[in-house]
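Q&A log
Question type: sequence-to-structure
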Amino acid sequence: MFYPCKEYPVNYCVSQTIHGDLSAKVYLDMPETTCISFASRYVNEEFTEFDEYVQASLEDFLNLHNGLYNVNISNTLGKELTLEAPEVVSDELIELSSSSYLLQVMYPFGVVNFIFELKK
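Response status: OK
Response body:
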C-alpha cells in the first residue's frame, strides 16, 4: 500500500531522477544492515559489511528498475524519458512535495522503503 509522504527520515538512501512527461524522483532507503542483505541477494554474492560494493549494488538496482520503467513507458505510451545517475542522499530528513508516496516492502531480512516523488 502506498502512503502519502511529505517528509522522510533517511537511513541509507539512494535516489534517481526521471525526466520527461512523467517526471519523478525515486528514493530507495533502508538501514545499513538491510542494505547488506538486500545487496547480497541482488548480486547473488555474500556481503558481510556495508562497503562501496553494497552501495554500488543498490545504485545499480535502482538504475536497472528505473531504466526498465523508462523502456516500458516508451514502448507503451511513446513517451521518451531520461535518467540522471543515481546518487546518495546525504540529508538526514528529506522534504518532499505534496505528490510523494511511500511504499514499504517487508522482507525476512528487513524493510525496504521506496519513495516516489512525482514531478509536474
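Response note: Helices lie at 32-43, 52-77.
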